[in-house]
Amino acid sequence: MRTRQLKPGMIIDQVIKDPTGRNLVVQGSAIDDYIISSLLKLGIMSVYIREGSADPDDPDAILSPKAAAMVKQLRTDDRSKVTLSDSVRQRVSTGVQYIFNNTNSEELTQATNQIADSLMEAINENDAIAVDISSLKTSDEYTFKHSVDVATISMILAKQMKLPDNEIHDIGVSGLLHDIGKTMIPNEILNKPGRLTDDEFNIMKKHSVYGYNMLKDRKDLNNSILMGVLQHHERIDGTGYPLGFDAPKNLSVCKDFVCRRCL
Question: What is the pTM (predicted TM-score) of this model?
């Protein structure tokens, strides 16, 4: 079926991968408007659709009887998602917008620390292993929501890895600030609805270096936070940016992980 004819609730009957081979949509998934829009942006003009639609009251409807039985046997109640009180949600919303609108402020680090503290408190109170980012409603702008999303999920993962509280906090701060360099990217590129050209993508890729340079002289941000901002688009196979590190063998090349040819 042509992608433009898809309707929410239809079932994809194939695996859809991105250009790097990663699974974007697994076979048997019920699609929604976001998935349809993403397929169009990727230039995927047609897909295989399973006859029928997903039953919203039966999440196991797309499974085989054997798989459904196994899911039923192994299913446990979800542990709580991060829930924020109205006052905390307002602080997070106001704080994250302040960060991106006042990147040169002396209070930027203090504001970021306060948001990380609020998120960490919510995670600990709920013993959370998931986050309902839609409930944050930080802003209509993707970058704001995404930064809170990255910070919260990263902190949850760090907690599950039993890292010390100070490292979990720093990971949260790094997540909140990781895209701050996008404030230096022209809006016509940052908010372009379609696929970026190669030249536009090369400009977009500079945001991690821009972010590092914006923050590197702040004495109240440690090197681990700065490296999170700089390296959040690196990949283990060396195909990431801006440094192109081939982890783990190259991690010992630069003690501060900063390549002067890029900075």
Answer: 0.64
